[in-house]
Design goal:
single chain; alpha+beta; Nuclear Transport Factor 2, Chain: A; Glucose Permease (Domain IIA); 10-stranded antiparallel sheet; 5-stranded antiparallel sheet; 8 helices; disordered N terminus
Length: 444
């Protein structure tokens, strides 16, 4: 009863083995913590940023010291640091191209070479928070060799050096796959609040409101309990959402009426009868006749630089001060004064259309302003890098530039008879989706 318990010889050996294992674990943990806390956490003085607003994390080269032991050396290999000749910056609110180039110690001359290459694309004029710029430098002389703009997973632009004085760009747009999503809700409060509650973005909600501007007075015609449905397509790349979407169909059910909008293959929205929700486009942004001084040509050689530079629009030779008119209803999304494109305007139209007007002498509209087809927006000019007075005019459909003279744009107010059966088939497909139980993505 009073005997004292003692471990057996086997148990004593086991306890000693466990203590040795525990000691090894503690040693490895200490070594790991030492390696972690001695990794560099701030940029070296020569790359330190002063006075700019960029606040990205930057990975810097390993310290030029011998590893403490084999274990810390293995840890360093797993870190796989970004080489010191590759720098990344994530765009923050308030950033501009000049401050970003200053932060990575690249001179303004090189920046203007990039801007010149971007003249026909103008992607760098609208850098948005979250966009990522990656700079690849020559390892020896630190000269910029390549700059990549990451807009979203399905859209990147690469600016590559071609000689000492110039760059060229490659616009990489990946199609991915598009899957439909049904959003179904009731009006509680305002349509804006109700739309956000079911998962629509602010931009999508604004687009729907603008789409029905001539059909529906949201503050007057919609009441609590009214029903709405939206089918939107979401883009996936390698099975992951890219954040890009577009509206395929919308239905509103009020106590007395219902309102519909269906996106057709021409990029325009129509109601179930095939009547357009938007006014038709006009072909030319001016009145009268003016000669084409430079046609649409994606393989054109630039008249000043003599390098291959796509001409993504049509130039119309006209005297400075000629009135320029919007070719369709829309919202002004850009009003800029570019070093090479001169003063220019960009208008986002209903559906998937965007128009651009460049080398203007005077602009008479403001960013965010709603514009009607045929409304005067500017006076033609000769600003920027130009060989003479003219208007440069572009049309983009689904994010891709097309020839303004031959593009298939909605010129009529209803679906053509030859396309009506195809339109009805598309409407039936969308209505069938809307009458199913609410789903997220097809197949889930």
């Amino acid at each position: 009863m009073n005997a004292i318990w003692k471990p057996t010889l086997t148990q004593q050996k086991k306890h000693r083995r466990n203590r040795r294992l525990l000691l090894l674990v503690v040693i490895f943990a200490v070594v790991g913590l030492v390696g972690y806390y001695y990794l560099p956490t701030s940029p070296p003085p020569e790359l330190a940023k002063t006075g700019a607003q960029v606040q990205d994390k930057q990975t810097y080269p390993e310290k030029p010291t011998e590893p403490l032991n084999q274990d810390t050396a293995s840890m360093d290999n797993l870190q796989q640091p970004v080489p010191e000749h590759i720098l990344k910056r994530t765009i923050q609110p308030g950033d501009n191209l000049s401050t970003i180039f200053d932060s990575v110690k690249i001179n303004q001359t090189t920046m203007f070479q990039i801007v010149a290459a971007d003249e026909s694309l103008l992607a760098l004029d609208i850098l948005r928070p979250g966009n990522i710029l990656t700079f690849t430098l020559d390892k020896k002389n630190r000269q910029l060799m390549k700059m990549e703009l990451f807009i979203h997973p399905a859209h990147q632009i690469v600016y590559q050096r071609v000689d000492e004085n110039s760059f060229e760009y490659k616009d990489i747009i990946l199609s991915g796959t598009w899957e439909p999503q049904l959003l179904d809700g009731e009006i509680e409060g305002s349509f804006y609040q109700s739309a956000i509650a079911v998962g629509l973005s602010e931009q999508e909600t604004g687009n729907i409101t603008y789409l029905f501007k001539n059909k529906l007075k949201f503050s007057r015609d919609l009441r609590a309990g009214d029903h709405f449905q939206v089918v939107r397509s979401l883009q996936l790349l390698d099975g992951k959402l890219t954040g890009q979407s577009h509206i395929e169909a919308v239905r509103f059910f009020t106590r007395k009426h219902h309102y519909t909008a269906f996106l057709f293959e021409d990029g325009n929205y129509y109601d179930e009868r095939g009547e357009s929700l938007a006014r038709a486009f006009q072909r030319y942004p001016f009145k009268g006749r003016f000669r084409i001084s430079s046609p649409f040509n994606l393989a054109r050689r630039h008249p000043i630089t003599k390098r291959i530079a796509p001409h993504k629009g049509v130039d119309f030779g006209m005297p400075v001060g000629t009135p320029v008119y919007a070719t369709g209803d829309g919202i002004v999304t850009r009003v800029k004064n570019h070093r090479y494109a001169g003063k220019y305007i960009e208008i986002k139209h209903e559906g998937r259309y965007m128009t651009r007007y460049m080398h203007l002498s005077r602009i008479t509209v403001k960013r965010g302003q709603k514009i009607k087809r045929g409304e005067r927006i500017a006076l033609s000019g000769n600003t920027g890098r130009s060989t003479g007075p003219h208007l440069h005019y572009e049309i983009h459909i689904k994010g891709r530039v097309v020839n303004p003279i031959t593009a298939k744009i909605p010129m009529a107010v209803s679906i053509p008879k030859s396309k009506f059966k195809l339109f009805q088939q598309r409407v039936s497909e969308l209505v069938s989706l809307m009458e199913q139980p609410v789903f997220d993505l097809i197949g889930t």
